[in-house]
Amino acid sequence: xxxxxxxxxxxPQKPGVYLMHDAKDTIIYIGKAISLRNRVRQYFRPSxxxxxxxxxxxxxxxxxxxxITDSELEALILECNLIKEHRPKYNxxxxxxxxxxxxxxxxxxxxxRVMFSHQMKKDKSRYFxxxxxxxxxxxxxxxxxxxxxxxxxxRSLPKDIGKERPCLNYxxxxxxxxxxxxxxxxxxxxxxxxxxxxxNGNFQPVIQELGRKMQEASEAMxxxxxxxxxDLLKAVRQxxxxxxxxxxxxxxxxxxxxxxxxxxxxxxxxFVRNGKLIGRDHFHVDIGSEASKPQVLATFLKQFYAGTPFxxxxxxxxxxxxxxxxxxxxxxxxxxxxxxxxxxxxGTKEKLVELAAQNAAMVLSQDKEKIKRxxxxxxxxxxxxxxxxxxxxxxxxxxxxxxxxxGFETVGSMVVYEKGKPKRSDYRKFKLRxxxxxDDYGSMYEVLSRRFxxxxxxxxxxxEQGLGNxxxxxxxxxxxxxxxxxxxxxxxxxxxxxxxxxQIPVCGMVKDDNHRTRGLYYQNQELPIDRxxxxxxxITRIQDEAHRFAIEYHRSLRGKEQVHSILDDIPGxxxxxxxxxxxxxxxLDAIRAADIQTLASAPSMNERAARAVYGFFxxxxxxxx
Length: 625
Hints:
The protein is an alpha+beta fold. Strand 10 (about 265-275) and strand 11 (about 275-285) form a beta hairpin.
């Protein structure tokens, strides 16, 4: 058994990372320390107070472990990697896992290309970015192709010159066909340098050149050509307008500020490249046991820059942060050059940080409103349903549906909604074992019996092992069962629950003649429901989801050619006769009821085959008596 007080005495006076485990041995917190002994002991001192969340965490700690490192920098790197891998409950966590695109110029090639790239690699190419919008990158790359007629193919030039015909881009005048030797290396390189100048933000020469060509084409009455230049000019001006000047030093920097409430935070980042504001982005952060703004900012820096390949020269922050020196050292190591963390106090830079903070506050406020609306659609809708049925505390709802095509294998679906949202990890599919043909009631009886018998068995096993019922989709029983149908389906469910001595409310989702939900069948009466309410919308979503999931499973089985008809078990009845019988009689019940003469009259059938079919079904009936 782990004795916390004894283990605290063994802690070394060295830098490292510590991992806190709960009773289920789940890692709930990861931290780093210059001195493991001093830092870990602090958590268990009665006088130590770091806020309510950290108190809640400490009460759950059953054991801890630690990893010694040679330096605080090594501890920081290890901490970042472990947090990313385990995502502990009480660590501040960056929700978004975003990547940013680049524009890549393959300057290592004799005839370089300008292309979209998802990442920056250590190769001979030159990269521009990162950019915050993939659409903007594609738009810029497309514009460069139109302006400079550069190649986009992957041919190995000059080795492949003249080996194949030029592609479509040459014929539509968007490539100068270096693959055919129609442009020399020097002239092509000149175009590449112009493209690089454009990517560096030097738009004026292009704007002047396009304006001159448009004027010349117009004067020569080449109006189509003039319109082409006009469109290009407009596109260049739009790109130039998007890259607003934010500073005159031409440096790369990120401007970072945040807004927070008790549970959530939004961090806003402005990306400045070559002195130009190329975009911005915001990131949602779940606040863990760290409570202060400097701590949240420090955690954001570690998680965000651990996952991005580009580190700017300067980070302008809203506030001074803890461990700023070690974070700056770590970032400098990743960048390969010195990185500065600064908190501007006056001037344009301070105003940019303030602007980032205002944007973060606006996003946080808007998202809170969005969350409220979402809660109306989910938790609020569940409350409406509970009120209609006279049930309180509804949290988990399970819905069931059956899918079959006459004569083919029947399948069942179980979908789960928790707090009004689908919990897809708990969805389950059932391939029917005891029911042949289109018997929805018999199929539903089997599905529910298997589901709850399995759940009771798992509960018993967990009880014997000294474990709770909080894990596994089958051990968690619903607060409400919703059946896709009325009285008949509800009675099937109630019969199963009675046989298993379970008491769970069951209601049916009743549809009208147009197959639209009209109300709920509960305790032997149909309850009308407001079609304009959120509760009605949720019922419809649950019903549609259960149906979709069952149909999707059935379709996947048919796609894998695993569907089996009981007609396949009759000697002499192959695929052709089976299809003919189903087309003629439409259902297995009709085939079972037909006499030999009627069966023989079906296409592709003869008297011998008809006798085989008749004998199969009536022999089956004799065996059931």
